[in-house]
Amino acid sequence: MASPLCHLHLFLLIFITNPWIFTTVDAQHNVSVGDFLSADGESAAWQSPSGDFAFGFRPIPGKEHMFLLAIWYAKVPGNTIVWYANSNTQSPAAAVRNSKVELTGTGRLMLTDPGNNELWSSRSAINDSRVSHAAMLDTGNFVIASENSSNLWESFKYPTDTILPDQELDVMTLFFRLWPKQITPYNTYYTLGAGSQFIFDDSGYIQIRNSSGRVLKLAPENVVSRPDSNYYRATLGFDGVFTFYSYPRNPSGGGGGRWSVLWFAPDDICRRFVDNTAALGTGPCGYNSICEPINGRPNCTCPPGFSFLDEKNPYIGCKQDYTSYPEDCNTDGSTIDSDRFEFESISFADFPFSDYGILQPATELECRQSCLLDCSCAVAILQDPSLSPHGTGTCWKKKLPLSNGWFNRQAIDRTALFKVPKSNGSRKSPDTPQPCRGNQNQNQAVLILSVLLGTSAIFNFISLAAISSIWFCLYRKRLRDADDTVCSRRDFETNLRSFTYKEVERATNGFKEQLGKGAFGTVYKGELSSIYGNFVAVKKLEKVIQEGEKEFKTEVKVIGQTHHKNLVRLLGYCDDDEHRLLVYEFMSNGSLSSFLFGVLRPSWQQRLQIASGIAKGLTYLHEECSTQIIHCDIKPQNILLDDNLTAKISDFGLAKLLINNKTQTLTGVRGTKGYVAPEWFRNTPVTVKVDVYSFGVMLLEIICCRKSVEFVMEEEAILTEWAYNCYSEGMIEKLVENDEEARKDLGRLEMQLKVAIWCVQYEPLLRPSMRTVSMMLDGAVQVPSPPCPFPLNSMSKSLKIMV
Q: Which family does it belong to (predicted)?
């Protein structure tokens, strides 16, 4: 567990204690009056009878010679902390080396520094009783008992960030404060259950007892509790998410166990800070940041033009990358030299507060222009104009600091437009595409004409004829070049940019630099105005058969509403006469194939992160986007990597699309050898499980850094068969024979391998959904042992060849 001292944000529990049921102390593990522990680095502790829990000093990570007086799971690797001593300000009471904690004759635990100065002490609830002893119980409760067998003090009455089975609270609500500077908290952002009593019973369930006395189970959901075989805890993380965990008491496999997430609340921590009064705070991610819930946790990112205040701590907010000076603004508040700025957009993002101006109705061009000319405007939020019958939306202008930014594809119908300096920090060069200014050429002609009209009548007559000719030429040129200018043309049906062929041809320098070639056409590198990013990838669809046109139309209509962190974003398209092209975001690190099978082996952690990202992207395609999409050709060549090595699925718009809520489709064999699911060859209905199969093959490639089909000694070796043989024979180390990092992580290696084997099962019904696959890869659910994935008598010589 991360130390509570490592974060500036601290989320606390408000509770009202009720009369507790006193527990009898086990006399065999008593702590006598005068006994003490010293913070000397040896981790001396008072243990419970079973040894499950320990009370004593734990070193604080990253804080040399600093210790925390705490209770922890003694048998769990890493010694997960479940309680720690708090100071008067509710912050952890940190002790230095040679500090000590002692059970005093007054019935208190007293923590003192080497100079005998008090750092913390327990406060007895009963003043008339004399202390008998103290003990660490098997429930995780540390108690101080009196001579009449009542408890003078117990840690269960003073929870910090964790509660354990057999623990109860009257009321449990969550609120936010900025630690350590802010003592008074902000308003409550979440209440755990609507009841009068919060109960974590000894059977491993969190329950709520309402005012009528009825007990309702709150967590975990759809899980049978087994306290005899699992440890349970519920912890409020520094990120504000209250999470229910389990850990196997006797982990199998020799690689140790891990805490598994069984339930968490709230389900969208980012939205909780937008929908209620707690939004007045900085939110889970701090000012000038964007919060996105991923697996229940806030994923904090900085918008364009901003970077983290602290790269090691993404939860404290972002700072603007450029400095605004008073001389950049006119006295009327307008921007001086507005050509220095441009806009970068993020769809499905919003900053619900900080607005100071509203334009309604407003087109995207009007919204951009208003913010561009306003010196105070840092970002403009545009409501999707396609939702309006008139094709116009609402524009909110925001100024710094930006608070409670959040991203949600299902709940937000807005686009955030961030005003940022141009990359070169200067005015546009003559070769840079200019904004659409339809009257610029006319104004030049009018200026010339006005000057000439001040001369003699004869000269004026001659000049007028000349200027008329110039005017006519300029006007024709403006009309001719209109298609060559990157104007604000948005197809509201697809939510994409519509380009002319000339625009794309110029952007690719005549389709000069080829990035790759696939079944549907060739991909070229291009460069457009930086509102699209510095570079783009242009797929030139080759008009071969009618099916290609149909696939293009389908992609444009569907992908315009399809966005996910792990999908390559489609920026626009060209449907100009016989020319059909797709404009994508450019992925600087190329394909997973090149990354995986290159000269240098990617690190084990990088490969795990990539596998998890691909699984999330496929989950979105199968279950979360408005129209279900089957990819049909999942392979490393169709997985691209951005600057941060984030995996993004490409070509998903070219997959067979399920229309009218159909769940199956029959079609010809599609895909690539080695990744094609068996049902393609059986003339049976094809479902999303074909993608699951292909993902399983690719997951094995990610694990082993070997191709799915290899030719060794002139014989064909199949990776799926070899991997299963290694698993069934208990030789999984051979899969990563030269990968020391992976060999040290055999527990996770085995888990990943089992997930892959489940994915490549011969029968589609045996394969898990991609949502389940994603949860298994993230450790949210346990992975059972898979059966043999192949039909009988179908095994090749892969084991012998590849070994």
A: Belongs to the protein kinase superfamily. Ser/Thr protein kinase family.
